[in-house]
């Protein structure tokens, strides 16, 4: 039975589209389309979809299982193979590898940039890439950035290795993704494409994405950045994440990058690097929400509304004597978010502090930190020094990062199989 679909589907518009089973239950979201490039001007055959299923696992669904492609929804049928997708050598990812390529219009010899690719279903029910949307440069009677849709056979260079490829169209297709999800997309790209995507991202976005990638990929991407840019990205990261990344580098390289950072940004990172990795000091963030005892509940609530804060960081306000930058003046206690929500806005935070929860020293080992959070049902715990100065706070997400087995972001496990071990039915022939 032919797929219910528009006559032509542009692949970039499928990015992030929800995939459903025949009962209407969600399966995952489309992350890419897998094709087999062929010699000469032959149209590439579409093999299937890369679909991300919870928790952040990319799987392959053959086009033979796709029954409907509509605006905002794709429906698939049959059993879904949950083995982690791994691209084979002969396969190409449309979004990851074809977008932003520089190609040549055969008729005019003009160099243009690919912004999208369209696929169509034939009478034999197979799907092929048939059209290419390209952005043309400035010319007589033509506006700069004009988009033109041409036949696949009308361009040359899509099957050749690309030495210098941008990433604007790829990033536009995934513009609405959360950093963790964009990290999943980048993780499945080649090293070359990762570097190109990193070059195209702004510092803040790249910093957020790096925090979600495995450490070896963080190091590899950072190595592709010019020194000043690498320092800017480290400054945009949380001090604890920047310290974790720098700890993976050779000491002389870490020191070089620290020297390029703004001294005020580098100072807390240097301090964190003095602590052992699996201690409260090595786990903590130096930027929790801190207020003096004279602050009001209204001020505290305004601070925790900051969308850049993680839920764990925003759950508690630490009340300390000035200065309120770590290391602070004397630590007084915690003002819990739930308590703040129950108090009049003009109430002083010093009147609602919880002094029953003892803070941890920076030397507390990881198991002790985990037990403390579990015992008192906390999502964060303050860390103070011998002089009762607040140094930072350890959040439950940082503890989980260190308790989970190495490589957990890759979901390495017994159900993952090597490419050579994949069942023959996993790909359309």
TrEMBL record:
One cellular component term from this protein's GO annotations in UniProt: membrane
Please state every residue range assigned to the domain named CBS: 284-350, 353-411
User: What residue ranges are annotated as transmembrane?
Assistant: none
Spell out the Basic and acidic residues composition-biased ranges: 419-429
Q: Where is the signal peptide?
A: none
Stored SMART domains: CBS, MgtE_N
The record's SUPFAM superfamilies line, in alphabetical order, gives: CBS-domain pair, MgtE N-terminal domain-like, PRC-barrel domain
> What GO annotations for molecular function exist for this entry?
magnesium ion transmembrane transporter activity
| Keyword set includes Calcium | no
Source taxon at top rank: Bacteria
Q: Pfam family example for this protein?
A: MgtE_N
Q: Which CDD domains match?
A: CBS_pair_Mg_transporter
Work out whether the entry's keyword set contains Transferase: no
Renumbered residue ranges of the record's region Disordered: 407-429
Q: Which UniProt keywords apply?
A: CBS domain
- Could you tell me which PANTHER family the record lists for this protein? MAGNESIUM TRANSPORTER MGTE (PTHR43773)
Protein name according to UniProt = MgtE intracellular region
Source organism of the structure? Acidothermus cellulolyticus (strain ATCC 43068 / DSM 8971 / 11B)
Organism phylogeny: Bacteria, Bacillati, Actinomycetota, Actinomycetes, Acidothermales
